[in-house]
Amino acid sequence: MHADGDESVDALWTRCRATLRERVGTGSFQSWISPLRLASIEGGVATLTVPTAFLGSYVARNFQEAILAVLDEAGAPATRLIFTPQGRAIPQAATALAEAPAPAAHPEPAAAEETMRLDPRLTFDRFVVGKSNELAYAAARRIAEGNAVGFNPLFLHGGVGLGKTHLMQAIAHEMRARNPQARVLYLSAEQFMIRFVTALRDRKMMDFKQVFRAVDVLMVDDIQFIAGKDSTQEEFFHTFNALVDQGKQIVLTADRSPVEIAALEERVTSRLQSGLVVQVNPADYELRLGVLQSKVAVARAADPSLRIAEGVLDFLAARVTSNLRVLEGALTRLCAQASLVGREITLDLARDCLGDVLRASDRKVSVEEIQRKVAEHYHIRLADLIGPKRLRSFARPRQVAMYLAKTMTSRSLPDIGRRFGGRDHTTIIHGVRKIEELMGIDSQIADDLDLLRRALES
Prior knowledge:
Keywords: ATP-binding, Cytoplasm, DNA replication, DNA-binding, Lipid-binding, Nucleotide-binding. By secondary structure, this protein is an alpha/beta fold. It is built from 21 helices and eight strands.
């Protein structure tokens, strides 16, 4: 190697590690840089040993430029990095699935490999925490640390684009970084069902059971997908029980809470509620702005010439409120547009480039749409919701729809009354006041309103 004087490789790497800790932050350093060891620098190639090929692949994608810059500053310039897990060299483009083989006594679930395709960007370091997701983040972090948590399963629920999948993948990344031999299986409920059906067809149920019951952590996304699929529910129930009995951790996500998932067996619903159920709420303005700032920091690291005028991020955070995925996509499109034309990102450019996104965010909810959503939520006909029948099963949903029409639209009370079968405006006032009264004493009404609002705003 070529370094200052006769400095050893270990001494050189100790100096580099200290600089890297300052530049990438303590969290990223502990998770990704600390496990690395510099083996040699020859011919402009720096060889680093890593505990797993996955970790090497992730570092190559996210920290290669930082490591090369620090080596150059330390007097040992290199043009590329090679990562060697346990004596085997692997290419920088190695798949995120590659990893060192586990001991024979604890075989990695072989058939599960294809379901573990993790996005290297979805880590805890890139998760922005706010009031709407701080409990979910804290619970996920506790599980990822590998210590006893006192709740099983962790059930995260909320609308699309709020970070549930990000947290699940962050758990997998963190656990594999801390313990490369950990058997962590992440898949969607649809994948679980497909593999179950395939095992039945091919008469390989024993193999299926062995794979899913030999893991240390099982994470299933969108568990609401198995509702109404009786055989899949039953197998999931038995898998759930087997893992809990062994003290293994389970993490699940859904678009609604367990009790709101229709066509789910009571025993399954009961099991899903037996641990910690956490709702991930829509992001508030501060969190949306924090996500944008975090994404801009990443974009500037890749393109230092990126220029964003003052007020643009505030504008986007205030206008794009549907979900974080749409918000991030809007910023990505804006950065690409600015890069292609070589312009600063200004408010005018944002308005021109994101016209369709901004128009969608400004979409006004109609009384008719509220009526359809409420009828669908309570499983009644639209005609009965609007009609004259005074049965409680129709009257209460009707009052909920009246309340939402009053609070979510700019329609006048007489106009709303006309859209509810020609009712007088005093009837609308009575319905609104009744719901306002019930909201404080009936948690089910409060939950229904929250769910309906989110569905109408998304």
